[in-house]
Amino acid sequence: MFHGKKIVVVMPAYNAAKTIERTYGEIPLDLVDEVVVTDDASHDETVEIAKRLGIRTLVHEVNRGYGGNQKTCYAEALRLGADVVVMLHPDYQYTPKLIAAMAGLITDGPFDVVLGSRVLGGRARRGGMPLYKYVANRALTAAQNVLCSAKLSEYHTGYRAFSRRVLESLPLLENSDDFVFDNQMLAQILYAGFEVGEISCPCAYFEEASSINFGRSVRYGLGVLGVSLQFYAERRGWASFPIFSPGGRRLPSTRPPVPA
After folding, report:
1. Integer Cα distance of 152 and 145 in angstroms
2. Which pLDDT does position 205 carry in this prediction?
3. Which residues pair with 117 in a beta bridge?
4. Which regions of the chain are under pLDDT 50?
5. Domain residues for 26?
6. Is residue 26 part of a domain?
7. pLDDT for the residue 196
């Protein structure tokens, strides 16, 4: 428990055998109640290492994509009774040492969602983010802020913390199973009016850290702009999209029974 709230860290994994032990080793287990790894049909020893470390591990027999993996993560965290869920990539690109700070901004307020920003404090390039990715990040973020009437420093971090209420109320099952899931989720959060905070986060780019190639980056960027345009059109009543529908499909959110 952390400030009376149950904290669950989820790690959507794909071929993370070289980094998962290092990542797990820095999670503050004195504050975190559960750690969950969901493996998306990796071809390496990710599952074996996770189980050796004693981590609760769920395995997709068929690759479902980054978004599909997150859906499994969040559904399991809700099933375990999480009050706060922190998504941490197991590739050690983001430091686990910020988990307490991110969770605290939710347990004690004033935020419903906290993002670990690589841009705040000018850390992205120092951490090795390629120049083309940095420029694309800044350009896409600027466009998204205009279309979504927001002022976030970046929309593309994979280090995020959510309150239970956020995960229960968003129609996450309407979202893509691919990388654009992250941006659909942020658009849903902004559309629903949740409070979003950011914290400066150092990042590390190295050979073992996961990263999508240039071609997929282009497709991701176009998808991101598409999501923001949908947000803009939905807000103005010009169109209606399932990802913003109040009746959209949600994750199951049954809490575990309380011991007598």
Report:
1. 7
2. 67
3. 200
4. 260
5. 7-243
6. yes
7. 98
How much of the chain is helix, strand and coil, in % rounded to 5?
Answer: 45, 15, 40
Assess contact for 124 and 93: CB atoms under 8 A: no
Instruction: Look at residue 207 in the predicted model and tell me its pLDDT.
Output: 60
Omega prior to 110 cis, within 30 of 0: yes
Closest CA to 104 of 79, 86, 77: 86
Q: Per the domain annotation, does 258 fall within a domain?
A: no
Give the other-Cβ count within 10 Å of 128's Cβ: 12
In terms of DSSP bridges, do strands 113-117 and 160-163 run parallel, antiparallel, or are they unpaired? antiparallel
DSSP annotation of 216 reads H
Residue 19's SS3 state is coil
Number of domains composing the chain: 1
Residue 65 placed within a domain: yes
- State the CATH number of the domain containing residue 216: 3.90.550.10
Is 248 contained in some domain? Answer: no
Of 239, 164, 155, nearest to 198 by C-alpha is 155
Q: What angle do CA 254, 181, 103 make, to 5 degrees?
A: 55
pLDDT tens for residues 217-247? 788 999 999 999 999 999 999 999 999 999 9
- What per-residue confidence (pLDDT) applies to 211? 58
> Of 142, 227, 153, whose CA–CA distance to 191 is shortest?
227
Per-residue confidence (pLDDT) for residue 260, from 0 to 100: 45
H or E stretch including 115? strand 113-117
pLDDT tens readout for residues 76-89: 999 999 999 999 99
Find, among 126, 132, 110, the residue nearest to 198 by Cα.
110
- Rama region for 13: left / alpha / beta (φ>0; ψ in -120 to 50; rest): beta
- DSSP-derived 3-state class of residue 53: coil
Structure tokens at 201: 């986060």
